[in-house]
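If it is no trouble, can you show me the amino acids of a protein and the tokens describing how it folds?
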Amino acid sequence: MMKQPLIQFQNVFKKFGGQPVLQGTDLSIFQGEIATIIGKSGVGKSVLLKHIIGLIEPDSGKILFRGKTLSEMNNRAKRKLKHKFSYLFQSTALFDSLDIFDNIALPLRERGAFSEQAVHQRVKKRMKQLDLGRIDHKFPSEVSGGMKKRIALARALVTDPEIILFDEPTTGLDPIRKTTVHHMISDYQKKFGFTGVMVS
């Protein structure tokens, strides 16, 4: 019996202003793996990620999560599904006005479902797991580029997501640092067991 994909695109089409972006896209992403979408700038990689998380709906075709069509889910089911996702942005998207602790804590506080004590415990746990040491009260401008990537990953992991979407995480890095980031993602995927979708 074939393994069911976690996320599946079936003949997905999407246009913007008459311009085709996705043209009959078929894609299967399996749980516990890292899938990489590779393509030139402007071919629709970020559009594909936005379809996965439900920010954009296809013009035609189907997107399924564990065999259930996203377009047929009610709002409650869609909200519950979004909580399974986390997003790691191309530029890390850390807030300069917040210290490292508050940057990592942000997704937990936005949900409003955690006490401050629970937030503190979760953030400290992720910082320890990602070897971030005692930098809680430093600001993003005070740490290295590699450290910023790990801080962004700690923030992505702090909600215990099932799936992490990586939007061009190595853009602007030299080949050695790109390799370091790829190894970091691979190592932590093995450690935490998330499903990764990376565009590059």
